[in-house]
Amino acid sequence: MKWVPITAIICIVIAVSVAAAAVTPIGVDTAKEKAQDFLDAPGAAVEYQKTERLNLGEYHVFGTGDGQIYVNAHTGVIERVTFDSARENSRDIRLDQAAAEATAKAYAEAKYDGFAEKTMRLIESNLVSHGDTGSEYSYIWREEIKGVLTPNTVVVNLNPNTGEVISYLGIQRKIQCQLEPALSRDEALKVAAGQFPGIRVTDATADLSVEYTRPDTQMLTWVMTMRGEPEDHVLQGGLVVIDAQTGEVLMVSPYL
To answer: What is the Cα–Cα distance from 122 to 33, expressed in whole angstroms?
Structure first.
């Protein structure tokens, strides 16, 4: 089964596979109240659309007239929200990086339970261009425990012109695997370099990260990036994910 580490931006939305808790799902009416509370608008027109199971879990999905809101059907936690109108007028960049990050962090602290108390590491901070349609600031935090990145993730995307929130993602899961690796960082780097025969390494990164390597199963991994001297103007190296307990190579994704 092919899978993508959570450290890639897109996989935070589509590749974390988590079993729903063994509890009775909440009803649609309760979920609607949760959605309205999240929007700070108890009387907001929130319309039920569907209940569906995604890789992130099972959700009651509501339309807000300006986007969608996903309520975890087992916990009642709001885990994904989009605000379509916030994308308008996003061509101009009026907010600098510092102001945008402060705005995104304040929103995360307000909406993600325990954000201020957890050790949340900012792993991505980018101004993403969408060409003629505009741009957005994207900020991604992951909780870090004893130097290990966990699946607990917050993503906030902002309009660089108005500072409005375009979308929010907030995932919080219990850690179900041990966080002490049997494989050292140096050992993992050697394994990663071995996936690119002849590479002359110029730079490498290594992060301990809890990943879902198959549905419902957490695993402590080394997520490595290897960069080597170009050959014939082609960048060498790529992404390697290794089981931090056994040393098994779980994924290799060379640079294109």
So the answer is: 31
pLDDT in tens, 127-178: 999 999 999 999 999 999 999 999 999 999 999 999 999 999 999 988 999 9
Across 44-49, average pLDDT:
92
Assign 1 to helix, strand or coil.
Answer: coil
Q: Give pTM, 2 decimals.
A: 0.83
Q: Rounded distance, CA 241 to CA 5, Å?
A: 8
Residue where the block lists tokens 């608008």: 41
C-beta of residue 156 within 8 angstroms of C-beta of residue 100:
no
How many residues appear in the chain? 256
Span 185-254 CATH architecture: Roll (3.10)
- Angle in degrees, CA 139, 145, 150, rounded to 5: 55
Which H, E and C letters describe 196-232, residue by residue? CCCCCEEEEEEEEEEEEEECCEEEEEEEEEEEEEEEC
Q: Domain segments of the chain: what residues?
A: 11-171, 185-254
Of 52-61, 115-124, 159-168, 242-251, the one with minimum mean pLDDT is 52-61
DSSP 105: H
CB 140 within 8 A of CB 123: yes
Q: What CA–CA distance (Å, rounded) separates 28 from 72?
A: 11
